[in-house]
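Entry:
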Amino acid sequence: MAVQKAPSATLFYFRGARFPSPPVSSQGLELVESFEVREDDVFVSAFNKSGTTWTQQIISLVTAGSNFSEVSKIPLGKRVPWLERADLHADAPPIISQLKDSPSPRLMKTHLPYNMLPKQAREGKGKIVYCARNPKDVVVSVHNMNFINDYLQPLSWEETLHEFLSAPPANLWWNVIPEYWSHKDDANLLFIKYEDIKKDLRGHVVKIAEFLGRSLSVEQIDEVTANCTFAAMKDNQATNLSRDPVLKEKVFKRGNEHGIEFMRKGQVGDWRNWFSPQQLETFEAFHSEKMAGTDLTFEDEE
């Protein structure tokens, strides 16, 4: 099967939410609601550019059992496939169809809002690990992804900011994240924050392992942690997609030409290098209005 070249993504709507195609499969989205969830399934969920890759790496190693360094060399998309993604091969069924016959435990990544997760997952079957991030850093990361990803349309910083604040309600950060937060006490959902992982990576390896019912030795915890630092992941072509031999030519050619990688900075507070005083005032006023009534907060710097 020939791998598709990377055309520009077109946008489509499904249940009020907007998606880019590629990479999202409209056919795959139709199958999510009725997806048969197993008790040991793990869904790695996050808003775009909010720590998905980091959480995938931690969870895939925590569940690996042993040989963490070797497992870390396997492309992350194979270890934790994207639930709603189209296959890279033009004539292959969407990823969700292929997952039906995958061996347990199945690890799956998703960017879907909570209300669009598989019905059985929302009813308590399987495990959901949700990673959230300060929206100011999210929009900066979104802006850079739009630039480096050949599928996406590069926008000016001002255009990115406008798009982020005026997204359809089903895609709006201020609707998606509070909905997940409202389920933080569900037995099958672990809500974590990017900033907290940055502050205590090892502690989060332990927390995630406990949530997933995995017993790791001190040495195993140390090894997983070592393979999940930003530096280790940036040097690993299995996690830094800009260094994947195929993707660097098919998806991230523009970024590589400008020296900007998929694993860029991984900082907390990089937003300070982007927002003008007026933009920051507007953004924070919008944030305060939308988050009124919720106790969810984020740290602004490391």
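Residues 1-6 have pLDDT under 50 and may be disordered.
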